[in-house]
Amino acid sequence: MRITYAPWGETLDELVDVARRAERAGAEVLWVPELHRSATVSAAALIGATSHAQVGTAIALAFTRSPMVTALEALDLDEMSGGRFVLGLGTGVQRLNEDWHHARWGKPVGHLRETVRNIRLFWEKATTGEVIEAEGEWEPIRIRGYERPYPVLRTDIPVYVAAMGPAMTRLAGRIGDGWISHELCSPSYLEDRILPELHAGIDAAGRERKDVEVVVSACCSVADDAATATRRVAGTVGFYASVRTYAEFFAFHGLADQQQRVIDAFREGRGADYLADSVDAAMVDALTLNGDAARVAAQLAVYDGLADAVKLSPPTHGITPQETRAAQDEIITLIAELTGGTA
Predict the structure, then answer these.
(1) First to last CA, the chain
(2) Which domains does the chain show, CATH number per domain?
(3) What sign results for the dihedral spanned by CA atoms 119, 121, 122, 123?
(4) Tens of pLDDT along 127-180?
(5) Which residues are in the Luciferase-like domain (predicted)?
């Protein structure tokens, strides 16, 4: 099971420094998100600062760029990295796409299927001068008179699909080189809800399980003091619990009542980043890795045999940058202990 990491930095300089440290510690992939920064710009910064770890987007928004722009950026990042780039794509939610980005939403499963098809088609034909054309309900493409004058390092850059719901998870199994989980994904949810749908998609496409890397995301808080470990990560749990879309996820873990308490606090006016006081220890224990290094290592080991890789990330919601830094330092130390790297 590969250990990978999502570095955090208040500045790009800090982000780059943390990426270097995580690579030395033994993280095999460095993942960058898209919300407060551009995923592709962040990826470029990490690529320039590292030498052997893969660099991936987890995730880049699939519909806010055209498939051609996404394909071009991926080709450039892959060239910059010497073939270390992984394109992780996700849909985001309807409001984010339509209201924030003025992007088309459509039916997200079909829309993402056509988007990934177009990206791969562009990679295949970008240097040939051939017509690049495909029909589609959401992303038809028709490119004539185009020929990329620069070499393409790889036409098969890995495309990972972020998914939580059953239909999108099946799509990841059908078309993805990998699947990336939501930031909160327990071993039981992975085993009972995700893997059956992923296997259904794999089987429907006539593929094998080894064709799709399963990357589970795990928000992680390491501290010798149990209360500190719990407090640091409670805000992240509260942030996600405030969203009704995740009702089935929390209900699966027997946490429907606890989620409702968080939603009630949110409706009373607390910001989504400030809900830690409404999150109890049961929610934190069920959905995150937390505790001292030995306890977190044991929690991490439960994913072995279910996931091919774990993407560790530090807590960021409802705590100060100093606390995130402290949590991040502990995670990097843990990665080094697990992999034999250098903290």
Answers:
(1) 20
(2) 2-224+290-338 (3.20.20.30)
(3) positive
(4) 999 999 999 999 999 999 999 999 999 999 999 999 999 999 999 999 999 999
(5) 10-305
